[in-house]
């Protein structure tokens, strides 16, 4: 590689790394506990636990909905969801209005058999960590900003690989020059750990970027596919009374045979229209359980109105979300994700140290050169 090309890639690597460093450290430090957020919530007592039942039948969806409204009088239901990892719990989202802001929603867990209120969901210190990680308490602007930092991180990784390639021709892979200066030793470790974690860092970084676009993707789906699905209802007034949730759930299951319900969105919420329930169905394999298929049902009668597969960009989003936090393979994969996260923190920190050490060395060299040129008064 020509010296000029090396210098160009070096500039790209240094500045993309420096610009994103502080925010990447924030994302790595907050992402580490989020990998184990279920376990941490349970340890701290913020994870509601279902009651013990001897093979009793589950409460009907409408019974759970009634319990949710009774627990939060004066508000409306937005969503009812069934957690595939905790079949004994049903979660209900209430808000001041169907299209109320997500931050104003209250999420409560109910026992799937007795419909008894188990407690709030999404409270405690992990909520603060999650907000810092996703948008830094700055809403959509914060998400897009962190997405831009993620893209810079990807460029820094690629440029680092390009710079490391000619370096390996002079030294064997994984060489650590212990007899050299401290800066050179740190450089060798920075390069080695960076290469070891490069694939993981790119996957997690890019899936994180995709996650920051979730709201934009949802708006695009609503403006195109969803608008086409609800076109026959254009001009009709919203339903004056809602169909029983039991009817909605039963017909959604009939319309998507072999699939289970992930969550129900009530009419007027951001995931559907003002006329329809939307039942988002999932499969039963590790992959298909992450992919959702919407079934729209008439808000008054519960009749199926339409059902279409989500577009590819939303399917990519649904796959990227659990991949970002290592939620596919249970605890072993979470431990691997956590170890790689710690190594990435070391890479970021060592890169910052190398830049500062280089600046100090250049500053000292300029001082020495100036001293040599300056005559000493006699």
From TrEMBL:
Keyword presence, Transmembrane helix: yes
InterPro entries: PepSY-ass_TM
Tagged with keyword Acyltransferase: no
Transmembrane segments: 12-36, 144-165, 186-210, 335-356
Keywords: Membrane, Transmembrane, Transmembrane helix
Pfam families reported in the protein's UniProt record: PepSY_TM
Name of the featured protein: Peptidase
């Amino acid at each position: 590689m020509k010296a000029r090309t090396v210098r160009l890639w070096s500039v790209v690597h240094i500045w993309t790394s420096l610009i994103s460093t502080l925010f990447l450290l924030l994302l790595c430090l907050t992402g580490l506990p989020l990998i184990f957020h279920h376990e941490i919530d349970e340890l701290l007592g913020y994870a509601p636990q279902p009651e013990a039942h001897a093979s009793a039948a589950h409460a009907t969806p409408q019974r759970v909905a009634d319990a949710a409204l009774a627990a939060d009088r004066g508000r409306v239901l937005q969503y009812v969801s069934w957690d595939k990892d905790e079949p004994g719990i049903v979660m209900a989202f209430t808000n001041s209005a169907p299209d109320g802001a997500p931050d104003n929603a209250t999420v409560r867990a109910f026992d799937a058999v007795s419909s008894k209120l188990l407690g709030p969901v999404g409270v405690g210190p992990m909520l603060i960590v999650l907000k810092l990680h996703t948008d830094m308490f700055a809403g959509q602007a914060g998400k897009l900003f962190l997405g831009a930092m993620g893209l810079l991180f990807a460029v820094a990784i690629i440029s680092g690989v390009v710079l490391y390639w000619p370096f390996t021709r002079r030294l064997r892979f994984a060489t650590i020059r212990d007899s050299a200066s401290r800066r050179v030793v740190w450089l060798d470790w920075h390069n080695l750990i960076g290469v070891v974690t490069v694939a993981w860092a790119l996957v997690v970084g890019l899936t994180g970027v995709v996650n920051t676009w979730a709201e934009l993707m949802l708006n695009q789906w609503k403006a195109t596919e969803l608008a086409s699905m609800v076109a026959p209802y254009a001009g009709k007034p919203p339903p004056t009374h809602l169909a029983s949730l039991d009817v909605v759930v039963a017909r959604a299951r009939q319309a998507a045979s072999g699939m289970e319900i992930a969550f129900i969105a009530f009419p007027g919420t951001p995931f559907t229209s003002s006329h329809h329930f939307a039942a988002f169905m999932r499969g039963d394999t590790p992959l298909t359980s992450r992919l959702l298929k919407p079934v729209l049902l008439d808000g008054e009668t519960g009749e199926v109105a339409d059902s279409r597969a989500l577009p590819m960009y939303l399917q990519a989003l649904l796959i990227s979300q659990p991949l970002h936090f290592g939620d596919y393979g249970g605890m072993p994969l979470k431990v691997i994700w956590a170890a790689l996260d710690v190594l990435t923190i070391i890479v970021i920190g060592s890169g910052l140290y190398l830049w500062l050490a280089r600046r100090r060395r250049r500053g000292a060299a300029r001082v020495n050169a100036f001293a040599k040129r300056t005559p000493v008064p006699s």
